[in-house]
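--- STAGE predict ---
source: upstream dedup step, 1 unique chain passed
mode: sequence only
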Amino acid sequence: MVFQTLIDVHALQKLLGEPRLAVVDCRFDLMNPEAGRQAYLRAHIPGARYADLNRDLSAPIGAHTGRHPLPSPEAFAAWLGAIGIGDDTQVVAYDEANGSIAARLWWMLRWLGHGAVAVLDGGFKAWTAHGGALQAGDAGPPAGGRETRHFTPRVSLGSVVSTTELEDALRDRKSPLVDARAPERYAGTVEPIDPVAGHIPGAVNHPFSANLAADGRFLPAAELKRRWEEDLPGADLTSLVAMCGSGVTACHNLLSLEVAGLRGGTLYAGSWSEWIRDPRRSVARG
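--- STAGE serialize ---
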C-alpha cells in the first residue's frame, strides 16, 4: 500500500524494516536551530535519518529571497539519494507533533514528482505515546544495505508561484491567497521573526493550527473541507496559493487540502519574508 498524505502510528509500526521504507525526522525549532538534531540524537524512530530545515530542506538565503528558499531540484534530489531515498521509496516524514515541518518535506517530494510520501499523524509525540520503539545516535545505512540510491527529479510545473507571478495573480484576482501564520502575526499585532509585521493585501488567514485536533493529529477529511469552505466561501480551493512566513507551514495547509480531497493548490515559496524584501510592496494590518 502506498501512503500519500498521512500515516498513523500503527501503520508505520507494521512498515518498519521494509527495504523500500525511509523515515525522516524533521524536528526543528526556529528559535533554536540545533535543538531538532539534538533531540534526534537522543531518540528517534529506528532507522530514521535527520533533515535539517535550514541546511537540507532549504537553500542558502539570498539578497532577495525569504528565510527558507527552495533548493534546486538537482541539489535536493542528490540529498534524497544520499540518505537512501530512491524512485521506489515510501517516505514517511515526522516532526515533534503537529506536522508543521514534516509537511515541508512532504510537499518538496511532491514538487519533484514523488507520490509515495506521507506525514506521520501526531508525529514523534504520538509515536512515543503508543510505545513506539526508539533509537539513539545517528542511524545506520538505509534499509536494503545501500548507502546511496538514485532519485530522479520530475518537477511538477506550476506547483510553485514566484513573487512576480503572485503580484500578477493578485492584480487579476485569479486565485485566493491564504496565509498559514497565527492570527496575531497575520494581523501584524505580533511579529517575533520578521522585521515587518502584517500581511499581503488580499490574503485570507487560515492558520495551519486550524487543521489539527487538540492532540496534534489532523482533523477528519470532512471537517477539514468544512473549515476551508467556511473560511473561503465560494472560492475555487483547488487554485489556492498557500503562503506563511517563509514557505514552511504553508505546506501544512496544502497537505490538509489534499487530505480534504481539494488537491491543486500552489505554494508561494518566498512567502512573507520574501515579500517584505522590497519596501515598495504593499503591507496590510488588522
